[in-house]
Amino acid sequence: MTTVNVEAPGGHYPIHIHAGRLDRLAQSVPHDATSIAMISNPTVAGHYADRARKSLEESGKRVIYIELPDGEAHKDWRTLNRIFDGLLQSRCDRKTVLVALGGGVVGDMVGFAAACYMRGVRFIQVPTTLLAQVDSSVGGKTAVNHPLGKNMIGAFYQPVAVEIDPGVLETLPAREVSAGLAEVIKYGCIVDAAFFDWCEHNAGALRALDHDAVSYAIERSCQIKARVVSQDERESGLRAILNFGHTFGHAIESGLGYGEWLHGEAVGCGMVQAAELSAVVKGLASADVRRVRELVRAIGCPVVPPNFGTDRWIELMQVDKKTEGGVLRFIMLPRIGEAVFQPAPLQALREVLHKTAVPVL
Ligand code: NAD
Ligand code: GLY
Questions:
Q1: Residue 358's pLDDT band (boundaries 50, 70, 90)?
Q2: How far apart are CA 166 and CA 215, in angstroms?
Q3: Is residue 240 classed as helix, strand or coil in its secondary structure?
């Protein structure tokens, strides 16, 4: 088993990565927990709820189950309330431990519920998508969407453990694998040129879920994310680089309607746009822009953004947590493996939006 440690001010905790970890969840349940609330959705539960429940019951604690509807379209206040309803109906108390069994949508909502329920209870992340295993389950960002913007209502709240079983990816649809790989290659783009090279050489193996390739990609991604989050938990500086491609990506998601493109697909395409912007503003070599585009294509994500029209694009991007005083700021790459976070001149942005977008069919 590989263990990566997160040491953020809001909590120190292990990320355990091991095939079969789903059957060992009891090992991470705190001894003083009074009960466990496992929370999932019908899709994930259909595959893994029985195993996860059995494994949690080995702790000797009462396990209750709360089911949420599946999908980004349900990542909202109403669904969040279902968690509170379930916890209160089952008389869960301050020492109940929540367990998020699912992808980033379940993980983000359970984390936010844990931050709020009785002013804060402990929770464990059991991520079941590649995206959640390499990104969303680590670092304590929790949220729900608002009709006016994605992840706008939330909290920084760290789990007590992250339990990653790469074996559960076997049932993940190929499109979801590609979406998760977008967040994997992001780490190469922003801090690790050697990892970017490795991803270029292993794109096929990663898409095919080759065990060794995927395990290494999860481990390296978690190491990088843990390091960044440990240095800047609340995104006062460094952590912003983890949002490479996300300003464009979030605009795609909200512009098309949540769920139309997968989050990772939108981020993949957004990274190509951010690389184009980096070429104009930071002098990223055109050969490197091409490498980013080809790698995004190789992992199976879209590389051509929807054409909302430049003004609508900019309007959509204004609803971004990195915007300050109406000024749009972007993560850009002077070179592959290095990221800076700064405002981009509007003219440069318009140039890139004009160049890269084609009409929506
Ligand atoms: P998701 O949670 O919607 O999962 C994708 C689909 O796969 C769902 O239908 C889900 O039920 C299904 N699924 C999950 N595991 C499965 C499995 N093992 N086998 C078969 N099907 C499975 O999507 P996601 O890509 O995991 O997460 C996206 C969300 O994560 C977005 O809301 C995004 O904002 C959020 N996110 C958060 C952070 C963070 O730091 N908190 C970082 C990145 C993304
Ligand atoms: N996924 C961006 C972050 O966790 O900061």
A1: low
A2: 7
A3: helix
Among candidate residues 121, 144, 171, the one where a domain is terminated: 171
Which of 74, 80, 105, 233 is the best mutation target for the ligand 1 pocket, counting ligand atoms within 8 Å of the beta carbon and taking the most?
A: 105
Which amino acid is it at 148? Answer: L
Q: What is the CATH number of the domain that holds 287?
A: 1.20.1090.10
Does 239 sit in the ligand 2 pocket, CB within 6 Å?
A: yes
The gap from C-alpha 333 to its chain's centroid, in whole angstroms, comes to 20
CA distance 30 to 13: 12
Mutate to test the pocket of ligand 1, among 43, 145, 214 (most ligand atoms within 8 A of CB): 43
User: How confident is the model over 86-125, as pLDDT tens digits?
Assistant: 999 999 999 999 999 999 999 999 999 999 999 999 999 9
Residue 111 domain boundaries: 2-171
User: Does the beta carbon of 263 lie inside 6 Å of ligand 1?
Assistant: yes
pLDDT digits (tens, 9 = 90+) for 51-79: 999 999 999 999 999 999 999 889 999 99
Please state the pTM of the whole predicted model: 0.95
Q: What is the position in ligand 1's atom list of the atom closest to the CA of 75?
A: 32
